[in-house]
Amino acid sequence: TTMDVYVPQVQLERMELKTVSGNVTMEDTRADNFEVETVSGKIKAQRLYAQEIKARSISGDITINDYSGNVDAGSTSGDISVTGGNKNEDISMKTVSGDILIEQDAVSDMELETTSGNVKIKLPEDAEFGIKINTVSGKIRYGFPLKIISSGSRDLEGSVGDPDLNISVNTVSGDIVIGYQESG
User: Fold this and answer.
1) 143 and which of 33, 64, 157, 179 could share a cystine (Cβ 3.0–4.6 Å)?
2) Which residue numbers in the chain have pLDDT < 70?
3) What pLDDT is stored for residue 21 in this prediction?
4) pTM of this structure
5) Is 110 exposed, middle or buried (0-12, 13-18, 19+ CB in 10 A)?
6) Which long-range contacts (CB under 8 A, 24 or more apart) does 37-43 make?
């Protein structure tokens, strides 16, 4: 069964959606605060504009494309992918067995955590940021010219350029890749 809900093209103060076993798909949504939660469904948002975006899923993927706003996303066994972001200061993501992908045109403060998922961050070549990475058994790869503060086989701390924003990544068994966006 499918239920379509149409919301007028206005800026809402708050929008909250909750499902148990249904997928949530949104396009062209504007709200000061946006919250979506599902137990066993996927969350997919395209052109989502908010000050605060909160997305939770127990066993479904979370995909947010072309968005603005701070993001707080969590999934137990689904992947989290956010691409095309702008006008956001904070990104917080946590998964147990899902991967995390972030690709955006500007750096944000990021706090990312997985248990057995991989983390991939793609940023523009001129990005400047501080980085702190810890992993128990994963691999760390980076493509940026990193000024290393401290480094071990499973941890890395450093900076690129003159950073105002920081990226923190923690995994247990996931690999971590920080690289450039593909041009074009």
Assistant:
1) 179
2) 1-4, 6-10, 183-184
3) 87
4) 0.93
5) buried
6) 42/78
Contact (CB, 8 A) for 66 and 47: yes
Count Cβ atoms below 10 Å from residue 136 Cβ, excluding itself: 12
Residue 104 amino acid letter? Q
97 φ, ψ (degrees, to nearest 5): -125, 25
**Spatial separation of the C-alpha atoms in residues 112 and 138, rounded to whole Å:** 14
In this structure, the strands spanning 90-95 and 100-104 are: unpaired
CA angle (154 as vertex; 151, 156 as ends), nearest 5: 35
Can you tell me which residue has the tokens 């992993």?
135
Confidence at residue 88, expressed as pLDDT on a 0 to 100 scale: 85
User: Which of 42-53 are b and which e, b meaning 16 or more Cβ less than 10 Å from the residue's Cβ?
Assistant: bbbbeebbbebb
The DSSP 8-state label assigned to residue 177 in this structure reads: E
Q: Residue 100 is which amino acid? A: I
23-66 pLDDT, tens per residue?
A: 899 888 889 999 999 999 999 999 999 999 999 999 999 999 99
The 8 Å CB, 24+ separation contacts for 69-76 are 69/34, 70/108
